[in-house]
Write a structure and sequence with these properties.
This protein is an alpha+beta fold. It has one domain: Immunoglobulin-like. Helix content is 18%, strand content 35%. It has 2 helices and 10 strands, in the order αβββββββββαβ. Strand 5 and strand 6 (84-93) form a beta hairpin. The chain is globular. The termini are far apart.
Length: 168
């Protein structure tokens, strides 16, 4: 080895150690760990202010959902503490963009504690789900995904998309 190689080697070694110590964060988006084949029906799902937007407790939250066909969407979320819950079931949607909640639902989605990073999933089915699957009392990604998988498994056309927001 020549002198310049001896100088470069420690720099490369330090760089390799730094890179290997990095943590890789996966941003929410398409849910890939659902244990069924998905149909790519949901083209877009996000808060109307944009993915990653901030809402203050008490503010109303609306979502855009774009689908390629008519069907039903159920919205569920996971709180910063890991609690999973459904906040709207079997919302009828047509092909194209829909703003949720629908005026006909006569509800508002309001930002509520706990404060912090919230993930929201929309799952699509061509028919209404029978609502026998429970989400309350489930904690963490695995149980959330399992509940959604259990609910959509029986439908030949199904999809799941995820977005996120912050509540302050």
């Amino acid at each position: 080895m020549n002198r310049s190689s001896l100088r470069i080697f420690p720099l490369v070694a330090v760089l390799a150690l730094l890179v290997s110590a990095c943590t890789i964060y996966v941003r929410p988006g398409t849910v890939s760990d659902v244990d069924v084949d998905l149909s790519d029906v949901i083209v877009d799902f996000r808060p109307t202010r944009g993915e990653g937007s901030t809402y203050y407790v008490g503010e109303e939250i609306e979502f855009y959902v774009d689908t390629t066909q008519s069907g039903y969407v159920t919205l569920s979320a996971i709180d910063p503490d890991g609690s999973v819950y459904v906040f709207s079931r079997n919302i009828p949607v047509g092909p194209g963009r829909t703003v949720l909640p629908l005026p006909s639902q006569r509800v508002a989605f309001s930002a509520a504690p706990p404060r912090g990073f919230h993930r929201v999933r929309a799952h699509f089915t061509p028919e209404r789900t029978d609502e026998t699957v429970t989400f309350r009392g489930r904690y963490g990604d695995g149980e959330w995904t399992s509940a959604i998988t259990l609910e959509i498994r029986a439908y030949p056309v199904r999809d799941v998309e995820e977005t996120y927001l912050y509540i302050r």
